[in-house]
Amino acid sequence: QYSASGGKSALTSIFADEYFEVSRCPPPPAPSHASVTVIFIFIIIRTVGVSSRDLSESDRANRAAFIQRLLNKEKYLEGRVKLVGGPNKFEGNVYLYHAGRWGAVCDDSWDNAAAQVVCKTFNNSGIATHGGQYGEAIEKFWMDDVVCQGDEPSLPHCIFTGWGSSDCETSEAAGVVCYSKAEAPVELKKPKELLHSVLDVRSTSLRLAGGRNNQEGRVEIFHNGIWGSVCADGWTLYEASAVCRHLALGFAEQALQTDYFGSSKVVLSGVQCQGNESHVAAVICTQNLADLLLETSVIESTAHLQDVMMLQLQCAMEENCVSVNCSDVYKYNIDCQWVDVTDVVPGDYTF
């Protein structure tokens, strides 16, 4: 700060809440723009070289370290990420620090490879979330159309449209779920009793635990008075389908062999389990499944091009088919019609 009083002036520098008296000199004449620049540089040089007489050597060292940390703050934060809105620090919408402020990431082209790059910050693996799963974006979008290979050291090393270049709505915030095996340890004790007979799920208590909703989770069975997990070896979509039907959750969408949904003591093992497996059986159920499973090889081998006009074809535009509780293969010359089986009593029928 520069002030003039009674023909004299006091030049004082204010830095890190400390006042340093630098020099006393008569007020200079009105300088040109160039001379103002020279005086300013001189003042900065003089200010840096002056230390307070009231500070000890250790105090001056502490002040210098504090100032250095302030100067390095922007460089330290540049490119760092944080997760916002999730139930813990490993889950949430992705925010990136750039140019002095935090910004969101748009979910256009956002995939698990990008999530892997983000979760490296926490030494974890990860999966991507979309559509502002953890709330709408509360900051401007820094990145859009992010394309990663998964081995980049940080998110800015991925391909994207450019800093701040985005046409996304606040509801299109990208997020991640970072997880580690260390967070969900599996108790690797071999069960005392191995069931070698068929398990009747109709008389067995089952439940899904650890899922984000009631349609997913690790499969637990109530056996010998305790709830425990099922060994994942040999766990297929057939067993998962039986669990979903038993729990009135529809169909099995995925049969998982993972510890993502946590763990508990393994009380039921399949014939392929040894007792030292690192994963337990899990399932994701759904109320809707496709009616027809297409066999691409059959479609390719029976492809047929008609040499008549479309309007002359007897089965034209009737490709939609239905398969009741099984996977059927249809050739090109088979005409399929929808069959309503909503109110049909379960049993054996001949069509």
TrEMBL record:
One of its GO terms (molecular function) is protein-lysine 6-oxidase activity. It comes from the Eukaryota. Residues 81-179, 206-327 form the SRCR domain. It is found in: Membrane. InterPro entries: LOX-like_protein, Lysyl_oxidase, SRCR, SRCR-like_dom_sf. It is a single-pass membrane protein. This is SRCR domain-containing protein. It holds the Pfam family SRCR. One of its GO terms (cellular component) is membrane. PANTHER family: LYSYL OXIDASE-LIKE-RELATED (PTHR45817). The keyword Disulfide bond applies. Gene3D superfamilies: SRCR-like domain. Keywords: Disulfide bond, Glycoprotein, Membrane, Repeat, Signal, Transmembrane, Transmembrane helix. Disulfide bonds join 148-158. SMART domains: SR.
